[in-house]
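Hello,

Our lab assistant flagged a job as stuck in the queue for most of the afternoon. It eventually completed. Since we weren't sure the result was trustworthy after the delay, we are filing this so someone can double-check. Below is the sequence as submitted and the structure that was eventually returned. Let us know if re-running is recommended.
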Amino acid sequence: QVQLVESGGGLVQPGGSLRLSCAASGFTFSNNAMSWYRQAPGKERELVAYIFWDGLNTNYADSVKGRFTISRDNAKNMMYLQMNSLKPEDTAVYYCKIVALNYWGQGTQVTVSS
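-- returned structure --
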């Protein structure tokens, strides 16, 4: 069955960095576009970034553009989100998702606070 497992979240000070990982299994990862979403307390879940199957095309929410980088390793069935210059408003649970299918991971908490 499809499994998406996020990791790498934690507590970080403003201006700091984190790298999230998403381990995928149960489907042909290399054929699928993938995405990162996040949901802050009391807010709707929002799209952060997505990456095409080949890793050559990416897109970002305006709020993270220039600070976050999405990438993937099809040989390892892994997707990543490098988050730099983190701000308190980046605090949220971050989820990975297959773009074309309604499968979500369990999420990983990112907290940006001094």
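-- support follow-up --
The delay was a queue issue, not a problem with the job. The result is valid. Strands lie at 3-7, 10-12, 18-25, 34-39, 46-51, 58-60, 68-73, 78-83, 92-98, 108-112. The chain has a mean pLDDT of 97.
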